[in-house]
Each structure stands twice: as C-alpha cells, then as structure tokens.
C-alpha cells in the first residue's frame, strides 16, 4: 500500500504534517509501509537545485532518517528511474503499541508468497525486486514465514551471482530480521562489489549482532566512502542495541570496545563518513571521544557539525557537563 509520506507520518505521530514537515518544493517523498511499528522504507526524490537542507525540518524523526546517508550516490538506480533518484533507505520507527492499528495494514500471505516465488526467477531483475519487496514487509515477513522458506530464500539470494541481487538480499535480511544470516552478511563484507559490501553493512546494522563488531570495524578501512559510512553507522547501531540490552545504565565497556576505531573517521575525506562516525560515537556513549568531537566542531560541513553537537550532547547526558 502506498501512502503519501506527509499523511502517513502525520497518521503515525498524531500531528498535522505542517508541524513536522517543511519542504519548499512539491511533495518529494513517498512512504511504503507494511505494518505499523515495523520498518518504513523511504524513497527520497531529488528536486532540481533544491538544497538538501530544505528537505527536512529540525525534527528527530527526519534527522534520524537523513543523517548518515549520501544523497547523491547512496543507491543504485533501478528501473530507469533516472537522475532524480537520490537514495532509498529503511528506518525503524517505534510508536505507542497501545494505539489503534489503522485498517488495511499488515503482511498478507499472498504478498509474501509472491515475493518468495520471484526469488527463484531466472531473471536477476525479478530476484532483486523480490528482495526489495520483502525488505518493505519488514519484521512482519518473518513473523508470517511459518516454515522459514522466505528466510532461506533470502539467505540463498545473498550468494546470488548477480551483485545487485546480493546487495538487495543483504539489506532485506537486515530489514526482515533474519539473525541467523549474520555469518553470510559478514562474509559479504569481503565481496568484490562495493555495493554488496555496503548492503552487508546495512544488513548487519539493522540486525545489530555483537559478533559483527570485528568485521564492521575492519570495513571502516574500505576504499569506498559509502562502505566506510555504512560500517560506522552499523557500529553505532550495534552500540545502541548493546546499551539497550544492558539496561538503563548501558554497558560501560561497549564504548571503549567500539569507539577507538571510529575516532579516525572524524577526519575522513568524505563528509558523509565524518557524519556517520560522529553519530556512531554518540551512540557508543564513550566519554573519551569528547576531545576529538570537540575538535570536529570546526568541520567545514554544517551537516557534520550538527552530528558532532548531537554526539556531544549524548556524551554529556552520560558523563556530565565536562563531556561537552
């Protein structure tokens, strides 16, 4: 089901879209949803000569969606979408689970079966399209996959001969939540195709298994900036999941385990990588990163500065005023 982005977010948050959305051009976003409280996939479309800063209001929902992604090279353009396609990304938004579920949302058996069948198609285009369709279903796909056939098919697709299929399968495994696919995704971090490595970082970040930390740390040294940025973002998600699992005070050792490898990326040549590193350090809750983050306040890119300030505020909440 396709719903206009502004109306869908307004429905979920119970707000008038004018309060949370500010765009000077036409409605430039679409939202595909499978189930409330599940993953939401955003398709962001470029409006010629529209500065990226005009796309989002200063709202946590949009900041979380936008920060850390390269709006010019993040996604391979499929179906002859043309140069107006900026990026495609999925984000988990969680709201009041006691709220009434809107009618018409959910994962149908026919929808799941149809996508699973396409994974067996001899056409690569059908296979990567099927991976994308399953990713849009989010965790609901796994909940409806009684015999595990869909999870198995996605894991097989991660070994497909076509690089685009491998990339989309890796991302779908993360969105659907197939934790057992962690070994396959770690292996894909060594794939010869940079897009596949990026997709593997995305998948591992969404699964957030602690066992992926060494491989994601190594991926921080990848020659391609998109992979480095996705690896940094993935480590940030691992840190967030680890702290959440440890309870209200988090895991004090987690920041020290992940943070040191992220600090050098604050001076990476790509601003997207610097921003992802700053975000991840904030999620690590590692007070020792504060001096480097303070130096990063002088970054030439305002988007990096914004991420740095947010990270310092996160550290301040953990370590006190001296962290900022």
Automatic annotation (TrEMBL):
<dbReference type="InterPro" id="IPR016024">
    <property type="entry name" value="ARM-type_fold"/>
</dbReference>
<dbReference type="InterPro" id="IPR035892">
    <property type="entry name" value="C2_domain_sf"/>
</dbReference>
<dbReference type="Pfam" id="PF13646">
    <property type="entry name" value="HEAT_2"/>
</dbReference>
<comment type="function">
    <text>Catalyzes the hydroxylation of the N(6)-(4-aminobutyl)-L-lysine intermediate produced by deoxyhypusine synthase/DHPS on a critical lysine of the eukaryotic translation initiation factor 5A/eIF-5A. This is the second step of the post-translational modification of that lysine into an unusual amino acid residue named hypusine. Hypusination is unique to mature eIF-5A factor and is essential for its function.</text>
</comment>
<dbReference type="GO" id="GO:0016491">
    <property type="term" value="F:oxidoreductase activity"/>
</dbReference>
<feature type="repeat" description="HEAT">
    <location>
        <begin position="181"/>
        <end position="218"/>
    </location>
</feature>
<dbReference type="InterPro" id="IPR021133">
    <property type="entry name" value="HEAT_type_2"/>
</dbReference>
<feature type="repeat" description="HEAT">
    <location>
        <begin position="289"/>
        <end position="324"/>
    </location>
</feature>
<dbReference type="InterPro" id="IPR011989">
    <property type="entry name" value="ARM-like"/>
</dbReference>
<protein>
    <submittedName>
        <fullName>Uncharacterized protein</fullName>
    </submittedName>
</protein>
<dbReference type="InterPro" id="IPR004155">
    <property type="entry name" value="PBS_lyase_HEAT"/>
</dbReference>
